[in-house]
Amino acid sequence: MKKFLIYSDKILTAITYAAYIILLIYIVVKYGFGADILRTLLIPATGFILETVIRDRLNLPRPYEKTGIPPIIPKKTRGHSFPSRHAFSVTMIAMMYVFYLSYMGIAMLAIAVCLCIIRVKGGVHSALDVTAGAVLAAAYSAFFMWLFR
Questions:
Q1: 39-44 own/partner pairs: CB under 8 Å, 24+ apart
Q2: How far apart are CA 59 and CA 53, in angstroms?
Q3: Per-residue buried b or exposed e for 86-111, using 16+ beta carbons within 10 Å of the residue's own CB
Q4: How far apart are CA 73 and CA 59, in angstroms?
Q5: Is 130 strand, coil or helix?
Q6: CA distances from 138 to 29, 47, 98, 134, 146 (A)
């Protein structure tokens, strides 16, 4: 189970970032270098900055800091648990897919749910951490995609 969680975390994270690059290429090919590519770059980037600021300001402890139980997924970071950056990032990328390729967006949202579960089961985040990261990404992306449609 330990190896499954560790490898699943790495593989799903890598798939997510590769999927984002593929989405950017798709948008450039389909829409060119215009508002769509700018939106798809700036919304996640600015959201990531916001999420990082929130995380830094709150600096909440990770589950393994509270319990003293070492995490299954190797992690030595102290604090910065809420909201989860992994959950935020994978959900943000999934939402970008929802707006451009909805069928792929559904698959990416499934990956987001799996990664959130893995991060909790792996002991590096609480359910609240990943839920907050995912909700923040979904709300932020939906609002700004609607605003700049």
A1: 39/144, 39/145, 39/148, 40/96, 40/100, 43/92, 43/96, 43/140, 43/141, 43/144, 43/145, 43/148, 44/20, 44/89, 44/92, 44/93, 44/96, 44/141
A2: 10
A3: bbbbbbbbbbbbbbbbeebbeebbeb
A4: 20
A5: helix
A6: 25, 10, 10, 6, 12
CA distance readout (Å), 22 to 9, 28, 84, 101: 20, 10, 24, 12
Reported pTM = 0.95
pLDDT in tens, 100-135: 999 999 999 999 999 999 999 999 999 999 999 999
In tens, the pLDDT along 71-95 reads: 999 998 999 999 999 999 999 999 9
86: tokens are 């992994």
What's the token pair of residue 90?
């994978």
What's 39-89 look like in SS3? Answer: HHHHHHHHHHHHHHHHHHHHCCCCHHHHHCCCCCCCCCCCCCCCCCHHHHH
Please give the pLDDT value at position 147: 94
